[in-house]
Amino acid sequence: MANSKISKRQTKQASVQRSLFDYCDDGEPSVDEVSPVPSKVEEVSEAKAIKKRRKIENRRPVDGITISVGTVSQCDTPVPAGIHLPQYAWDENEGRVFKNALRGGITDKIPLCNFNSKIVEKICIDDGTETKNYYVIETIKNNVSYTITIPEYLFQSMKWISQLGPDAVVEPCINVAYIRHYIQLNSRNIREVKVFSHTGWRVINGKSTFLTAGGGVGSENTIRVNLPREISRYNLPTKAENEIDAINASLSFLTIGNPAITYPLWAYLMLSAMTSLLIPPPNFSMMLLGATGSYKTTVATLLLSHSGNFVNVEMLQNFEDTANILEYWAYLLKDVIMLVDDLHPSITQGKSDEMELTAHRLIRSFSNRTARGRLTDKRRREPRGLLLITSELDPKIQSTQARLMVIDISKDDIDTDKLKVLQANAHLLPHATSSYILWLSEHMKEIQDTFRTQFGIIRDQYHEKGQHLKTAEQLSFLQFALTIALTWIVERGLLSDSEAVRIKDEAFGIFKELAQKQACRIQREDPVKLFAGLLEMLITQEKVRLNHKSLTDDYIGGGEIIGWFDDVYFYLLPEVMWATVQKYHLGQFPATKNMFYSMLSSKGIIATRDGNTFVERIGGKTIRVIKIIRAFFNNI
Q1: In angstroms, rounded to a whole number, what is the distance separating the alpha carbons of residues 629 and 636?
Q2: pLDDT for 578-622, tens place per residue?
Q3: Rounded distance between C-alpha atoms, residue 13 and residue 105, angstroms
Q4: For the residues 42-48, what does the mean pLDDT come to?
Q5: Which residues pair with 372 in a beta bridge?
Q6: In terms of C-beta density within 10 A (0-12 exposed, 13-18 middle, 19 or more buried), how is residue 157 classed?
Q7: Which neighbouring-strand residues pair with 391?
Q8: Which of 4, 196, 369, 585 is packed most tightly, with the most Cβ within 10 A?
Q9: Half-sphere exposure of 138 (CA within 13 A, CB side)
Q10: Pairing between strand 207-212 and 144-151?
């Protein structure tokens, strides 16, 4: 048995030596190194090769179908040692990629596919938080060139081959790993390109640069930005041209209508470019509220024309879009205004509720700089710019009102002649913004260093007793942005110091009036005051009734009983009271039940012990009630 193993080993070694012999200068093998007698293993290999060749030659078409032959051609002589045989090859004449295989000293050319591909570019898409890689693949198929771009993760599976069309053929029984391997070996000098997919400020090569679809403002067209089609109109020139005319055109926005409309909007625009520069960032949104035909969308798009070509409403974000896609645009639109158009009543109540819910969700998201996490994508995409809404509906939730600056607009507020002049010059507005951006980049550190101090001084000027704290902050942001923008224009020589002071003083008066309107709006939507007024109205109109707690004939109001009273308290049945509120309040009540009870408790309007309800003994029965202090109501 041992002798048999030694014999087999010696035979195998002889075979290996035979396949690795060296060639002499005349091309013949060296007699000293090669045995003239072939080994048994060589005879078997040659027999297999002859048998395979005969099998291929004897193949015939079946039912008119031509069978693809795996081995296309073979070398008549063994491959000499020391000669490198390429693993793959592209045959231009046949239009196919082959894999070279050495079998028994004979080369087989095994076809893989009928297209020749290579990776020419690797693109890194950067959205400011995450990077995704893509491959640009050039392909030749049937003498036609193709270029496709695929995500990096799709390359390994090779499923992208289907994008080349139905005539992109992979040979039967071929593992696509061979094709992928060939493409990787065939790809040389792959260009690596970084592309940004958002707007706004980024530090690139140590320099703060403002990005839009046109590239980096102030850069030499060396920065690539690729925005989704829906927001690709955010496009600023890299250099400001016709700067004087452009800045004057931007200033003329203040004169196209009622200053109570144009001043806050223009200041809001100037603030948007500093959103990510300021700590803390602006924490409110703005709404243009008016009926149909009040020019609200026209004015909003004209304001947005400072960021690109927005002379029409094509592809504007609106409330027909889903909340998720709007949140995604809000994430990409950094340091600019995102306009969401046309919050309006709908034929169906469900659709109206859906649009209002989307509006509330967006407003809170921009205010808190938060976004919802998801199981499929745990990254939170928080808003990074400012939100402007055009609407026919006034939000009814008090907490939303506090996060929103509402600008009322009507048809009579707009000077249509001046509006048309500015619309004709709208192409100048992006150049004014580029000039402003370049000025901000030069003064960025100074602005950031002095922001907190200046902001605190302005906020103290706007703060008034009884006013919501958020209102003072909103106006302070607007006044700060207006001051910064006017400083830019003064330094460009288009305004004198006295003219800039006049505009700031005028703006201060306008913003103070805006604060008073905002305070009235918020108080009007206070759930506690709404409830008090509603209960007084229902009792006066005898739609609800309160009996005396002692069960005498004394009662207040009329209609269905919702509770009892004495000289100090109203004892209201919780579920009946809440159902009554829901029934008689027009529209959605601006608080949930638990939130409403908490508001009553925090303002000292209800007596509390362990919770919001008490157990009282009335008419010999124990009944759970809400004890509301009667003095809170004026006329009952």
Answers
A1: 12
A2: 888 888 876 667 677 777 887 788 778 888 766 778 888 888 888
A3: 16
A4: 55
A5: none
A6: exposed
A7: 289, 343
A8: 196
A9: 11
A10: unpaired
State the DSSP H helix or E strand holding residue 91, giving kind and residue range, or none if neither.
Answer: strand 88-91
Residues 252 and 421: their CA atoms lie apart, in Å, by: 9
Residue found by looking up tokens 């320099």 in the block: 207
Question: In terms of Cα–Cα distance, which of 209, 230, 232, 233 is closest to 221?
Answer: 209
Q: Is 620 helix (H, G, I), strand (E, B) or coil?
A: coil
Token digits for 509? 């008066």
Is the bond preceding 280 in cis, omega lying within 30 degrees of 0?
yes
Give Cα separations from 248 to 181, 242, 494, 506 (angstroms): 60, 10, 8, 19
Cβ contact 247:492 at 8 Å: yes
CB atoms within 10 A of CB 234: 26
Residues with Cβ within 8 Å of residue 184, at least 6 apart in sequence = 119
Separation of alpha carbons 309 and 35, rounded Å: 84
Residue 145 pairs in a beta bridge with 140
The rounded mean pLDDT for the chain is: 83
Token readout for 265 is 């909007």
Query: What are 533-553's pLDDT values in tens digits?
Result: 888 888 888 899 999 998 888
Host H or E run for residue 261: helix 259-272
Q: Among residues 196, 200, 190, 249, which one has the least CA distance to residue 222?
A: 196
Alpha-carbon distances of 616 from 548, 560, 620, rounded to whole Å: 13, 20, 10
**What does DSSP say about strands 569-572 and 144-151: parallel, antiparallel, or unpaired?**
unpaired
pLDDT at 101 over 80: yes
Q: Which residues contact 504 (CB under 8 A, 6 or more apart)?
A: 479, 482, 483, 486
Residue 127, both tokens: 């959205």
What's at 58, amino acid-wise?
A: N
